[in-house]
Amino acid sequence: MDETLLMITSVFEALQGVFQIEATRHNLTSDPDAFVNNETVLKVMQEKGNEILPVTVIDGAIVKMGAYPTMDELSNYTGLVFVNQNSEQTGGCCGGSGCC
User: Which domain holds residue 49?
Assistant: First the structure.
């Protein structure tokens, strides 16, 4: 598994217990209905194809296409601070989740 995907997985795990934030991930192969049922994503996929994946949607609006968001972008989107657990700045505060 690549490092970016591991980071995104850790972020979504960390967000599961955060009050007032609902974060879900969908995979086109295993959950195609999530893409079909989202008119915004479906329209862009019909116009541009699967090259837009991964796509990040916040409050119904596409905020990023073609790459996973960075930790800085995730912080901007959520108002939370995400840092790499392996960073010298974290001091191991993340409890093994890979992000805080």
Answer: 3-78
